[in-house]
Design brief:
The protein is an alpha+beta fold and 605 residues long. It has 5 domains: 2-192, Rossmann fold; 204-288, Translation factors (Elongation Factor Tu (Ef-tu), domain 3, Beta Barrel), CATH 2.40.30.10; 306-386, Alpha-Beta Plaits (2-Layer Sandwich); 396-474, 2-Layer Sandwich (Alpha-Beta Plaits); 486-571 and 586-604, Beta Barrel (OB fold (Dihydrolipoamide Acetyltransferase, E2P)), CATH 2.40.50. It contains 15 helices and 33 strands. Strands 17, 18, 19, 20, 21, 27, 30, 31, 32 and 33 form a 10-stranded mixed sheet that branches. Strands 8, 9, 10, 11, 12, 13, 14, 15 and 16 form a 9-stranded antiparallel sheet that branches. It has a 7-stranded mixed sheet with strand order 2-3-1-4-5-6-7, with helices on both faces. Helix 3 (80-87) packs parallel to helix 4. The longest helix has 14 residues, at 135-148. It is globular and about 85 Å long. It is found in: Cytoplasm. It is an enzyme of class 3 (hydrolase). This is Large ribosomal subunit assembly factor BipA.
Length: 605
């Protein structure tokens, strides 16, 4: 069987998953009359809602007499742990670039990894039918990007196709006829991408993607480096440093056929397959014949930069909205997630009933929380903190990111001001066409927590921000946090409209009438910088004297709506976000006012 293994690299929203849909359709993977779902590769609910790819996925198509395995990679740097390993499975990459936006920082992140591995890229300029397309400049930007990433002369001599994934065509020039569909892309893959290199010897495979399946247990996907593999075959698993992890038998060998995974009787070297039956082997381990004693070289994983405490929900409303509340259930769920997600680190916390979870960024952690919430979990989480480290001289280091913000010229002043308040350093400022500027900063990760929402407000939703881990650099000092205090409920019950109306001059509310509140729960933002306890349960005093004016319905100002990301960025270190399948509430870590005063005094002392 002739084989080709390729990955598709693109920035968030540049049309990668839509392109794969069209490749599946035009290769005959779908029947003519088969109803298909748009963005078929984004199978996860959160991926569909956010329009991003979180998990890498494999598919395969037949073109002429060759099977092409296609891996759809995440474009977001928070999921970079996936990307690095996936690229080691493939022999070529298609770099998909938006004809208007050009190559973006996350494209840079993944392309840099691909070029370092020696992969030869094919560049596909997508969305050339956009009215604001600037095709020639974008091609030059791609070339400059490759050159800046130390591409070899051979890699710089890349073939280019132009087209529209949405309309299902690719061609050698933007003005060519569109009647051949994706054929030029298929033909170029066969011509430009080398067949997989196969080593001699017994079966060896590097674990690349891990998932838990309710029927088959742990499933490991990878590319067979040498030999063949069949169901019921005895194998062993070696860790990255060559230690024996386990021995066992393979229960199933699965290959990718279109969007389906099909059980096969034998897989050959060079093919991308999934195997089931081994309970311990994980990503970056070598799965091999018992006679093999040296592991395959595996890519080390970039360090996590942000951590949070996941704590058992101990509020008075605990257990009323979710069915998974205990510390054991939360712990098991987090450990299961860490098994399949190598960019995530989960350790027991010094606090009672708490786990410390570290990841690549707050987006990755927010998606984990949102997934758990939909599964019926209730938990409390702390504000995201950055993972600090020290150098040999004992100097404190913190993670710094390269941040690229595309913004309309009129808003550039406020962006530069806000970023400098967050201890960011402006590296570059250049026009990016259409009265827009591209600003490049080096900013500490802790300064960026929660900035996305503020940026959208400051620029009326027109800015595009992209972040990429740059390096660990010396600690940049204190960053100003939230300036306002909060309004805290001093009793438990249901919020009353009349009481809320009377308290409106104290600051905007975060709750609505009829919502359940409890002592220590944050119900609004104070207009001043101190916290204030208030009573939102107090109804109107009734007497037997009729007033001449009718008791009119109380008109309340709409409350501040707290999304998960906004809540995580809003809270301070002495506060928590309580998350249940139905609600997101903000609360003080210590619910009792006297406990809070004692903690404050001991901090001062």
């Amino acid at each position: 069987m002739k084989l080709r293994n390729i990955a598709i690299i693109a920035h968030v929203d540049h049309g990668k998953t839509t392109l794969v849909d069209k490749l599946l359709q035009q290769s005959g993977t779908y029947r003519e009359n088969q109803r298909t779902v748009e963005r078929a590769m984004d199978s996860n609910d959160l991926e569909r809602e956010r329009g991003i790819t979180i998990l890498a996925k494999c598919t395969s198509v037949m073109w002429k007499d060759t099977r092409i395995n296609i891996v759809d990679t995440p474009g977001h740097a928070d999921f970079g742990g996936e990307v690095e390993r996936i690229l080691s499975m493939v022999d070529g990459v298609i770099v998909l670039v938006d004809a208007a936006e050009g190559p973006m920082p996350q494209t840079k992140f993944v392309v840099g990894k691909a070029l370092k591995l020696g992969l030869k890229p094919i560049v596909a300029i997508n969305k050339v039918d956009r009215p604001d397309a600037r095709i020639t400049e974008v091609v030059n930007e791609v070339f400059d990007l490759f050159a800046a990433l130390d591409a070899t002369d051979e890699q710089l001599d890349f073939p280019i196709l132009y087209g529209s994934g949405k309309n299902g065509w690719m061609a050698e020039s933007p003005d060519a006829a569109h009647d051949v569909g994706m054929q030029p892309l298929f033909d170029l893959v066969l011509k430009h991408v080398a067949p997989p290199t196969v080593e001699q010897g017994p079966f060896r495979m590097l674990g690349t993607i891990l998932e838990a399946n309710p029927y088959l247990g742990r499933i490991i996907t990878g590319r067979v480096a040498s030999g063949t593999v069949k169901p019921n075959q005895s194998i062993k698993v070696l860790s990255r440093d060559g230690k024996l992890v386990e021995t066992g038998r393979i229960s199933k060998v699965l290959a990718f056929r279109g969007l389906e995974r099909t059980a096969i009787d034998e897989a050959e070297a060079g093919d991308i397959i999934a195997i089931a039956g081994l309970p311990k082997g994980t990503v970056a381990d070598t799965f091999c014949d018992p006679s093999v004693d040296a592991p395959l070289q595996a890519q080390p994983i970039d360090p996590p930069t942000v951590s949070m405490s996941f704590i058992v929900n101990n509020s008075p409303l605990a257990g009323t909205e979710g069915d998974k509340v205990t510390s054991r259930l939360i712990r098991d769920r987090l450990l299961r997630e860490a098994e399949g997600n190598v960019a995530l680190r989960v350790v027991e916390s010094a606090e009672k009933d708490a786990m410390e979870v570290s990841g690549r960024g707050e987006l990755q952690l927010a998606i984990l929380i949102e997934t758990m919430r939909r599964e019926g979990f209730e938990l409390s989480v702390s504000r995201p903190r950055v993972v600090l480290s020290k150098d040999e001289d004992g100097q404190l280091l913190e993670p710094v990111e390269e941040v690229v913000i595309d913004v309309d010229e009129e808003f550039s002043g406020v962006v530069v001001q806000k970023m400098s308040e967050r201890k960011a350093e402006l590296i570059e400022m250049r026009p990016s066409g259409g009265n827009r500027l591209r600003l490049v900063f080096y900013a500490p990760t802790r300064g960026l927590i929660g900035y996305q929402g503020e940026l959208m407000t400051d620029t009326k939703g027109t800015a595009i921000m992209n972040r990429l881990f740059h390096n660990y650099l010396p600690y940049k000092g204190e960053i100003q946090g939230r300036r306002n205090g909060v309004l805290i409920s001093n009793d438990q019950g249901e919020a009353v409209a009349y009481a809320m109306w009377k308290l409106e001059d104290r600051g905007p509310m975060m709750i609505e009438p009829g919502w359940k509140v409890y002592k220590g729960m944050i119900v609004g933002e104070h207009t001043r910088d101190n916290d204030l306890e208030i009573n939102v349960l107090k109804g109107k005093q009734l007497n037997n004297i009729r007033t001449t004016s009718k008791d009119e319905a109380v008109r309340l100002t709409p409350p501040i709506r707290m999304t998960l990301e906004k809540a995580l960025a809003y809270i301070e270190d002495d506060e928590l976000v309580e998350i249940t399948p139905k609600s997101i509430r903000l609360r003080k870590r210590l619910l009792d006012a006297n406990d809070r005063k004692r903690a404050e005094k001991s901090k001062v002392a």
